[in-house]
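Supplementary Methods S3. Input chains for the assembly prediction are listed below.
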Amino acid sequence: MNWAFYLIAALTVAGGLAAVLLKNTVHCALALTVAFAGLALFFLQLDAQFAGFAQILVYIGAVAILIVFAILLTRGSETPKGSVFSRNWLAGLAIAAGVFAVLGWAVLHSASVLPHETAAPTVTVLQIGNALMGRYVLPLEIVALLLTAALIGAVIVALHEKEGSR
Amino acid sequence: MLGEGILKGMAETAKNFFGSYVSAERMTTVEYPEQRLAPIEATRDFPFLVYDGADWEAGLRCVACQICEKECPPKCIFIEKSKDKKPDAVGKPQFYPARFDIDISVCMSCQICVEVCPFEAIKMDTEFELSTTDRFGGLLLDRKQLAKSDEYYHRIHPIEAGEVDARLAHGKVKTEARTTAVAIASAIKGAEVPAKSEGGGD
Amino acid sequence: MIETMDQIFVLLQHWLMGLLPAALQPVAGVVLGVVAIVCLFPALFALTTVFERKGLARIQNRIGPNRVGPLGILQPVADGIKSLIKEDIVPLCADGVVHFLAPLLLVVAVFMGFAVLPMGRNMVLVDMDAGLLFFFAMGASTELSVFMAGWSSRNKYSLLGAMRAVAQMISYEVPLLMSSLSVVMIAGSLSLTKIVEAQNHYTWGLPHWYIFTPWGLAGFLTYAIATTAETNRSPFDLPEGESELVAGYHTEYSGFKFALFFLGEYLAMFSISGLGTTLFLGGWSAPFSFLGWVPSWFWFFSKMMLSIFVFIWMRGTLPRLRQDQLMNFAWKFVLPLTLVNLMVTVLWRFLGDGWQRWVFCSAILIVAYAGIGLAGMRRGHFGPRRYLYAE
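Predicted structure tokens for the full assembly:
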């Protein structure tokens, strides 16, 4: 099913490129959403159902909306006066190439280390749940603490504004 | 108790829903144009000219005094006086309107023309289905379209027509009494001075 | 005979698949299912528009549409023709691509949700292990399309309406997920077919539907409130009621695109009531065991249409909620209630069978309902107004 992989890859890369190259910031956010959808399709193609649907639910349903709200509430929604390309594009290109090389080496190196498996193991939601509550319970609780802190911070920021206006 | 109001509201709407199928007084919809509501006594739409008797030209009460034309706020009445006279309801020769047009696209049904007419000649009609495809000429009603009989007036506004008839009859009695008094007076004068010629009516 | 009637659509699908060569059969099977869904639910949508108008009319003591066809049944045909032949006006400075894609995205996302609903025995289009999660993922995509519609119109009021709609949908997403979480806990699976099968048992002729348990009833009520808010349905229809007053997020849409928004909203209502019947009302299982001879798809659709009727009833009864009342309600009442419900579900599961769990769970839920109702929904005391800039 290689053609599926290449198609989804093309979609994701196109979305990512559009997210950086488009002029209008909200268009960039929507293109980023397309890239998220491409990632979700990758997960689904690898039979990781939970990860794929969670990606759609969380990234497209919440994070994309958050990004769009952030763009609208600041002045990012105006079209930029200058060009989208920054002046130090050469340095940026070099850094991006370096990061890509490191990531590529890590991925290819790990592929040769892992045993070759012809059949992908079916990971059910039950196994994910057991792992979260068993082996990875500490990271889960720390993430929950982080989210609670963010929630309290948001409430305080909003509350502060209300009191500041009096 | 939270949610009580919602339940009471839902019970009320359910009663409405099922009640609308069974009870006639809930469903007050009149399905126009198959069914129509009977107009009440004071219904008014656009004016019309009243004529007595069978011939609309001869019996038209309007004497083209042009008071309604002058009093009409949006100036939707257009009257042209005739050159000759014809006898009116009491027999006196009067002018009559050669042209009496009302533009019902302008008329606002204020009834001022009815209130100021001294001859009970113009009254309010109840006809409202006057749609036409001709936006200008079709909405300019002329004398023939406006003339409707006194029987029609009795049909649409019975109480008002009764009062108008009483007023007209009373006026006729008064005029006749005055005519008779003048005739008697001039007859007495004529007996004293036979040379004087008899005058007509007032 | 009963079996045949029950499985008649499945048998029809297999027969049609058999007419094609073996290589094309799986694709053909799926395509047939998709065609069936795409034809059936818009037809139901058309019927529902007439029912809604006539139902609302009867609630308001008047006759609904009755001119087109007997009892106004053909009114959606007239509406459809009207929306197709109307001029498609796009504002000059509107964002053309996003303006065009927004209703498309909405309708596509909503149609995808139908793929996991079990509409009868063996009648689910795609039987996924994480079916419930897929459904909610598709529901989350509709929020994005609402925002796209509001922003691309380049209209202040559209944008405000879209922001309010998105805020409303996000706020009620959490209670929605939490109320279905209790069902998942008890059924032990995210797959919708397994959830229905877990409810398909009978004790003394009465079914084991989750709505007949204390946590199920509370869950169903919060689910109903959350879904009414998610689909922008009265009394939570401020985003679209605003379009009667000022403008909503679909104000710059005319003709067929507006019809697509309308279609999307009603289809979302269908799919979410379908999910509600699957989770709480037992899906395609019959109410009493002696009624098992009636086809399963009949039960599913009649329960779904019953939910739709309750939606219409609510629309005719309740006034619209203001934005701040709506948000207060979500965060201060519905969300705490769903959290309590989750804990009560845990208690239910671990107390084991018996009358104790009924009493305890019901008591806790009633106390929580009354307590949160009194505490969370207290009216704020407004003092005399202070005008900052007028003094």
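Residues 157-195+198-202 of chain B form one domain. Chains B and A do not touch (no CB pair under 8 Å).
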